[in-house]
């Protein structure tokens, strides 16, 4: 399992969010505290961020462990952004080890990360592939279960579905066809939306200033709120809402 996080709020450097916290995402790549599956997250990493006023995010991704990248610490120190999504990866068996499979995935103004796995990948593809057009399958961003989940979610976002509903319905349609862990995380720079389905997730709101949604707390300070399993979270610096994932709404 991977670890991921998203931040929205007053502009910060990625270093403040992922490197400086004592148990932050950087450290979680070799010493996660709450990870339920896997031990280290050394199969690549990625950052995606928005510049103010620009709806198209930038990404910096590598297939190496985050601690082995010679450029990351400088970049993370000098960049400033009001919206960031980052992940460290522990690759699921049978998936690509390449940079293309390191989150965040991106498209249509969204950044996406998946903490979890589809049972039986790649054979699980069969029943799920029926949900996608051939063009979507041929243009999957990577040979990875997460890329398939992203394509399913993206189809709903493109159709104009509200992001919380799109996430809930994507979890429902995947979970209906194969057993899966599906902690999903997206942002368009204005809202963070996430699901909890099989692994840990927390949020920390500093009302009016910032919000953080993360697989696990980056420090032992106050304000970290665990999100119950089987939930959908919508978060902005002004409010966090959590509602149960109701599988009876399966698409
Ligand atoms: N299945 C995804 C991948 O291989 C996510 C893995 C994870 O959560 N460890 O990248």
From TrEMBL:
SUPFAM superfamilies in the cross-refs:
N-terminal nucleophile aminohydrolases (Ntn hydrolases) (SSF56235)
The cross-references to CDD domains, in alphabetical order and at most eight, read: YafJ
Q: Which InterPro entries match?
A: EgtC (IPR017808), EgtC-like (IPR026869), EgtC_Actinobacteria (IPR032889), Gamma-glu_amide_hydrolase (IPR052373), GATase_2_dom (IPR017932), Ntn_hydrolases_N (IPR029055)
Ranges of residues in domain Glutamine amidotransferase type-2: 2-251
Keywords annotated in UniProt: Glutamine amidotransferase, Hydrolase
Extract the GO molecular function terms from the UniProt entry: hydrolase activity, acting on carbon-nitrogen (but not peptide) bonds, in linear amides
Q: Name the enzyme's class.
A: hydrolase
User: What is this enzyme's EC?
Assistant: 3.5.1.118
Regions crossing the membrane: none
Q: In which pathway does it act?
A: Amino-acid biosynthesis; ergothioneine biosynthesis
Catalytic activity annotated for this protein?
gamma-L-glutamyl-hercynylcysteine S-oxide + H2O = S-(hercyn-2-yl)-L-cysteine S-oxide + L-glutamate
- Judging by the UniProt lineage, the source's domain of life is Bacteria
GO terms in the biological process aspect are:
ergothioneine biosynthetic process
Task: Tell me which HAMAP family the record gives.
Answer: EgtC (MF_02036)
Q: Main role? A: Catalyzes the hydrolysis of the gamma-glutamyl amide bond of hercynyl-gamma-L-glutamyl-L-cysteine sulfoxide to produce hercynylcysteine sulfoxide, a step in the biosynthesis pathway of ergothioneine.
By what name is this protein known?
A: Gamma-glutamyl-hercynylcysteine sulfoxide hydrolase
Q: Name the source organism.
A: Streptomyces tateyamensis
Specify the taxonomic lineage. Answer: Bacteria, Bacillati, Actinomycetota, Actinomycetes, Kitasatosporales
User: Gene behind this chain?
Assistant: egtC
